[in-house]
Fold each of these.
Amino acid sequence: PYARGVIVGLTRGTGRAHLARAALEAIAYQTVDAVRAVEAATGDPISELKADGGATANTWLMQFQADVLGVPVVVPQVAETTALGAALMAGVGAGIFPQAHVTDLWREDARYEPRMGGDERAALLHGWSRALERSRGRVQRLPEPDELIGARLDRQQAAPGEREHTAHAVLGEPRGHLPAVAELLLVLQKPPRPGSRRGIPAL
């Protein structure tokens, strides 16, 4: 449950292009999860998805989104719809124009129809679900900010020979099994040696 990010299926032939595509695919898969959650909560399936933002400039992503979602994806003429909407609502609130005028300003720029078959879509979504299952519990819980502060205070108050043990105990991990980030935080908290800066050992 504390996993921050996992890349599954790497081989010796994996390159930068594969990682870039995986990042784009993850956007589409997570959107599918969000849409399915909304549909489950409301009981109403969506007939199309209206997308906005900078990602709409990527036509491959928009087509893939339509394919894995199974409904058309519609892109507006003005990609930054959120910013435009805030400005228009301010105009409505100031009485510059009526709200009906705001609705009429929306214009469709592109529509992406699903091209993927049901079997292929199901197989891809199943692979996404398997990747999510593999990510669960793969990253240990990192200490909260207040825990790090408590560890620093305990290190300052403890006897010299007990400081390192106290810090590990507060972080809740036995020595030798701390996450890499926690180990780095402990190193940065140690008193600096002559010739070092900010607690980082001199080379």
Amino acid sequence: EVPEKYMKAKQWDFWEWWAGKAGLSKAVEKEGLTIGPPISHETGWCLKLPSHRKRLLELLVLKKPKILFGAPTCAPWSRACTTMNPQLKTLIRAEELEVFEFWMQAADIQYQENRDYLYEQPRSSELLNTPKALAHKDKTEAIDQHTCMCMHGLEDPESHKPYMKQTTLRGTIPLRKSIVWCNGKHEHEMINGSLKSGKLRTQ
């Protein structure tokens, strides 16, 4: 169940799905804004479960978040994903597309009720150019904005060189401060392969 600290708020300013360790939610809360519960496996939520989806839509309607933010799983849509068995990739994409369609349903509610949504993907993600994603973009009058994550402090934990990571932010919010392209004044670390710990750099 959702902790009381979130439920006592009449409306949420910001609600993050695929939140991971909820870094963005923590930053928003630090600014004095009201957040919804970060939605991720780490916090006990699974967007693939029908019962969880049902509850999320109930909360969306109840708390009317001013901004719904998501970071849909990007790995199966990467152009760099060339070593995966093609049949397995097709199955994984179909499963993730079903989850993405649920995200679009939530984003539709935001749009219809004059609230905002935003989601991020690597700029080269093939998810952005799927027919359903493009149709939804047009339907909700969304815009694509591009930034480089090296300008936001993303770096390799071992070499401490910045990752460029060109990123697309698609949604209904015009961004100003967040949209910064690489200034070319530093050397980038490649965001592929593994760290010494064995952890993938893309995780």
Amino acid sequence: GAHIAYQAVGEGSIDILFVLGWVTHIERMWAEPRLARFFERLASFARVMVFDKRGVGLSDRVSEDRLPSLEVRMDDARAVMDSVGSERAVVLGVSEGGPMATLFAATYQRRRRAFGFAGSGPGSALWRSLDGGDTWERRMHGLPLRYTKAIAQDRSRPGRLFVGTSEMPGTWMHYSEHAAQLESAGAQMYETTDYGLHWHQVT
């Protein structure tokens, strides 16, 4: 196991699991005035859970030859919810946290109240090459691609992908301040089991 550093701030009726980006430090982030104001605003109406992913910040370090998978980090997020006593939460992912938030929301559907993401993802298309990159084919047929935000892959089944999309643009602060309304605002998730040839809507 590993020790995961986390904080829970605020006492609102809504729980928010906030998956931050690549490198974080949950104590030093409060020294950044804009970030502190942002989380204080969220904490005024919700209980906000933030954590340092395994290997960064105050969480346990990892060996370079045993880097954690997306699934391992996703379960670390679930452990944070368990430790706080949160049954259901709005799951928000920013930047590198977007794929984990998407996979979490798809895997633990009963534990998410809604989900959202911002500043995350591969753009508006998914492409595959079978010849080392000489030729490519588009694999997102039938998806509303205007705002594709995050992609997560099931490593035990490489052909299984989850894609998060949104029908509306906006900054991550806009999404987060309206967390309880994320699903009605157009955030949706799609799943494929054949590398993107066919898709069906999960939420």
